[in-house]
Amino acid sequence: MAAILHCSITPNLPSSVHSSLTTYKPMHKEQSYWASINSDIETHLKMSIPIRSPLSVYEPMHHLTLSAPRSMAPALCIAACEVVGGHGHQAIDAAAAVHLMQTAAYTHENLILLDQQKPNLAAHHSYDTNIQLLMGDTILPFAYELLASSDDSTGNNSHKILRVIIELSQAMGTQGMIDGQYKKMQRIGSDDRLIYQVCKKMEGELYSCGAACGAILGGGSDNEIKKLRRYGLYVGLIHGMMLRGIGLGRVKEIKALALKELHYFKNQNIEAITSLVDARLFRSSS
Amino acid sequence: MAAILHCSITPNLPSSVHSSLTTYKPMHKEQSYWASINSDIETHLKMSIPIRSPLSVYEPMHHLTLSAPRSMAPALCIAACEVVGGHGHQAIDAAAAVHLMQTAAYTHENLILLDQQKPNLAAHHSYDTNIQLLMGDTILPFAYELLASSDDSTGNNSHKILRVIIELSQAMGTQGMIDGQYKKMQRIGSDDRLIYQVCKKMEGELYSCGAACGAILGGGSDNEIKKLRRYGLYVGLIHGMMLRGIGLGRVKEIKALALKELHYFKNQNIEAITSLVDARLFRSSS
Fold first, then answer.
1. Per-residue model confidence as pLDDT tens digits over B220-267
2. Does any domain span residue B21?
3. Which of A110, A113, A158, A206 to mutate to test the interface with B (most CBs of B within 10 A)?
4. What average pLDDT does the segment B186-214 reach?
5. Which domain CATH number covers B72?
6. Residues whose CB falls within 8 Å of the CB of residue A262, separated by 6 or more in sequence, listed in order
7. How large is the ipTM?
């Protein structure tokens, strides 16, 4: 869906960004590919979180999940699964879980930021802080439950799902988004080098995790998983930097590093996944 | 260890509790059994959360985990595993995860309660609210990572671990502890019936989950898992009611229901697990 595709990746991009994306061309085919994936994820999320009793819990959970800022990390999860030869539907629960993790982190980050300057990307919730606190705590276990429940009755997929759970936990945890939030919390606003670290830990880890999870579930080899994990890290870094409008002089260099990781897959259909380095593709068209 | 065994289960018990536990006898053998299990869990937690870099994250995580109020739910996880014929060490990660879940919930509940009346059981942290928020968010994924990583290289145990992850997620989520916290947040202080619901959702779900997880990992049948899950619910309910000093007239009745679930295991060694209904066994001796 357009709403989820044209998300908050590049709001109010500085003009310097455009010049750094010298290879940008309108890629309608790829845009359509990502829109279709995002639509599937949106539908899956809506089905997974029905509004049921107790309404006081499910309604805000449903609302926060669907109104939280989006990234392309969940879609990258599906795309990575397909690059290694899997079918996208094998990674749909993991993709939804990636979005849920991001939602939980965002919901709680809003609380940290309450007494600090709100960034432009922060939506304003109508829920009080206690509800936001509880909702973050609800969404996280729900993401794990969704994933763990995706095991088929034969249990043949169990080991892969556990690997995905480890990837997600590490992306969320002390070496990942929590570390990014901690750095962010320390009001490191004006120091570009530190904001770069925040982008790496936040969007970088999230995209990296999304790509690795998709590759695991698609049956990728360890080497394929490793390369897609690194590709995700670079793409997330680019998207994070563009989101914050910092370090834009480095985008070209990071883009080259990202594309280098994809050389390994040159015989596969990588047109769509390659397009993800061009974050301008995902800017709001509204 | 005594510190973890003699936890906050029955602080300042009203005298009516003692009279309701008419079958209480000093059970040194059982006390020693639980102390030994709790010591193993404490050691495992200490080893699992080393104090390493970044210290700003690991130190509070380590401290909060080890200083949070304890319950007997993790020990029940080990005991349930043994009742169905498993070895306690098969359930040690799950037991640690149960404690970590409880710690995460407690850490965030402290934030909810900041502008409300603090119950006697709440410890006072020296960390600011943002750190407590981040720590809760760190501890939860860490619990899942610990569990998922406990899969052996053959992957034979994967399906069981995924079942445990579902149990834990449900105990934490919208039908479990979150629902309990939501009810608690609504300041339902004086209504015994509602506090009973809180006990059921908080301690009840936690103990129930602990028992079910242990039974799953020990290789219990569906029926055994079901019975131990219900036993855990009743024991948790008793411990929760005694902790809050409410509904004590119902303890005897609930205790009978709990013991009924154990009839099924009459040919197994259930002396120790049976002793858990006598919450006075676990009162502080300090």
1. 999 999 999 999 999 999 999 998 888 788 899 999 999 999 999 988
2. no
3. A158
4. 85
5. 1.10.600.10
6. A227, A231, A270, A273, A274
7. 0.87
